[in-house]
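User: Let's play a game. I give you a shape written as tokens, and you guess the letters that built it. Ready? Here's round one.
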């Protein structure tokens, strides 16, 4: 069954109201590990760096490491060393769990405590990624909710590409094929204020190819062919080009259009001779 929280809540809803009950329980379990602010006042960039480097060298208690990182997370500033602190918490997931502390719950507690913090998208993404690792359906549904919240309320973000891809994976794993398709389609729409290069590059090429494969499985041949063509013609480099040409040839063969099938195979052999499909393409051209 599709979760009621599949789409994020509209802007303006308070963070506590937006969170599913399972997440509120998760946050409650780690409440004692979340100090309210740093007793030393604001940290300098040198302070953040020193704390992160200290934790990297520590081999003792994960709780001691966490105590060093918490003041950085409390401030919520989006700096290099702050992002490193978040990633260290992720790396401490297993030793913290052995101490009864949820790394995911900890990061999400920082988010709910200050959802407008510059570091909010990092709390959301890494918290969601940790939840997704369990493979449990309730955790996958919660992780999807968190990622959709990130995409709707904290974009643009340097984690946007990763969030889109992971959210699509979760839709697939949960059986929400229609939502996987819709999510990828929305990712390709123009985003005001994101710049003219937002729909170019390797990530968008991957999205177009994945969307084409979904269309193909759904029997939406014309749309699949369109996305494959965009992969080939509007992205620099050769990555995925041979795969797209191979699938174009297969689709035209299925449609009974031998001329277009051969055209795609010739392009594959001439422009991608290194391809894993090249030898089979040559056989089909004989």
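Assistant: Ready! My guess for every position:
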């Amino acid at each position: 069954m599709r979760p009621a929280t599949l789409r994020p809540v509209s802007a303006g809803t308070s963070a506590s109201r937006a969170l599913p009950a399972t997440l509120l329980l998760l946050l409650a379990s780690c409440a004692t590990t979340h100090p309210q602010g740093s007793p030393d006042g604001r940290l300098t960039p040198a302070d953040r760096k020193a704390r992160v480097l200290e934790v990297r060298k520590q081999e003792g208690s994960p709780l001691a490491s966490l105590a060093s990182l918490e003041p950085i997370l409390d401030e919520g500033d989006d700096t290099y060393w702050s992002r490193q602190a978040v990633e260290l918490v992720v790396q401490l997931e297993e030793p913290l769990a052995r101490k009864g502390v949820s790394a995911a719950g900890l990061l999400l507690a920082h988010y709910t405590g200050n959802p407008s913090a510059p570091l909010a998208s990092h709390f959301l993404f890494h918290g969601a990624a940790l939840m997704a690792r369990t493979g449990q359906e309730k955790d996958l549904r919660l992780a999807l909710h968190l990622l959709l919240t990130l995409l709707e309320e904290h974009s643009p973000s340097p984690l946007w590409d990763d969030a889109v891809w992971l959210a699509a994976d979760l839709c697939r794993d949960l059986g929400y094929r229609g939502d996987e398709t819709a999510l990828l389609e929305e990712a390709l729409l123009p985003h005001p204020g994101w710049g003219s290069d937002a729909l170019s590059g390797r990530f968008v090429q991957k999205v177009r190819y994945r969307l084409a494969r979904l269309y193909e499985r759904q029997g939406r041949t014309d749309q699949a062919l369109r996305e494959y063509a965009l992969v080939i013609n509007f992205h620099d480099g050769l990555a995925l080009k041979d795969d797209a040409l191979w699938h174009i040839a297969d689709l035209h063969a299925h449609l009974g259009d031998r001329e277009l099938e051969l055209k795609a195979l010739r392009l594959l052999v001439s422009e991608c001779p290194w391809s894993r499909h090249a030898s089979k393409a040559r056989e089909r051209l004989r």
